Inverse folding.
């Protein structure tokens, strides 16, 4: 009998790893279709059995269950994350976190430039990218210091997509199979803590999501509907009422998730216009 190839062995190990993650996932899973996802979510919400959340297809589910693998070393307890969230003031503390990240990135590049005669990046030759740091005299200045700048208000801005997790990202067709889960909590804003969701790439740590959700719930009557491997779908009960309020919220959301502008709508004013036109918010981290 021929020995399995390295690719076959890798696939086997990956499959076993995913199966172990799924076995260790502590929450009930409910299977449905993309066409039925929102109505099923609403039905589960009325059942009083916990907080329902749409998780997406098998790929999203695989990513979401990874923190629950028995050998996962980074997962904190729900209590630890919620205690950290209680100490945060959104968006001020997120702005401070982003400022610290910018300063750390500049410091790393400067050290690289000092240690190599042919540096990959010279910080002094990239003032727009590296030296456009937020001012420190107020949180408003910090928020205003982050790009992009404000341009003209767009006409006919497209509304944000609705429940993207219920549809195939390439074809737009409803998923044939996807999953929901029920989180045993009385507060939906704690879902990122229960799922230990965040803390990779530019996606904030779980406590920052909890703090943001609590703040936005108070100001805009939002509710989390879907959370995938790298995606959030949020339903909005109260849109920003003025352009100034929409611009302020757009800056805050750019601070939270810059990909929705940099790899999405393309400008802050387009995001602000969308926020005034849509009852859904969409976030995605590359």
């Amino acid at each position: 009998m021929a020995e399995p190839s390295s690719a076959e062995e890798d696939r086997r190990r990956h499959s076993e790893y995913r199966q172990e993650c799924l076995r260790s996932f502590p929450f009930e899973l409910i299977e449905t279709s993309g066409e039925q996802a929102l109505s099923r979510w609403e039905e589960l919400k009325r059942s009083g059995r916990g907080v329902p959340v749409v998780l997406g297809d098998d790929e999203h589910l695989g990513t979401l269950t990874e923190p629950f693998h028995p050998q996962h070393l980074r997962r904190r307890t729900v209590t630890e994350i919620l205690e950290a969230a209680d100490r945060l003031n959104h968006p001020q503390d997120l702005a401070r976190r982003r400022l610290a990240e910018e300063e750390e990135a500049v410091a790393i590049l400067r050290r690289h430039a000092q240690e190599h005669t042919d540096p990959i990046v010279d910080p002094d030759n990239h003032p727009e990218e590296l030296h456009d740091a937020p001012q420190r005299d107020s949180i408003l200045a910090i928020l205003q210091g982050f790009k992009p700048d404000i341009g003209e208000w767009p006409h006919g801005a497209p509304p944000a997509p609705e429940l993207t997790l219920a549809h195939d990202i390439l074809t737009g067709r409803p998923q044939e199979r996807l999953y929901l889960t029920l989180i045993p909590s009385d507060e939906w804003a704690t879902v990122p803590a229960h799922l230990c969701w965040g803390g990779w790439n530019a996606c904030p740590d779980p406590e920052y999501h909890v703090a943001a959700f609590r703040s936005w719930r108070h100001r805009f009557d939002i509710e989390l509907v879907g959370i995938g491997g790298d995606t959030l779908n949020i339903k909005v009960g109260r849109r920003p009422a003025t352009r100034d309020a929409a611009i302020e919220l757009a800056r805050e959301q750019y601070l939270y998730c810059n990909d929705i502008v940099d790899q999405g709508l393309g400008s802050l004013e387009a995001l602000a216009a969308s926020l005034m036109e849509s009852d859904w918010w969409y976030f995605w981290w590359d």
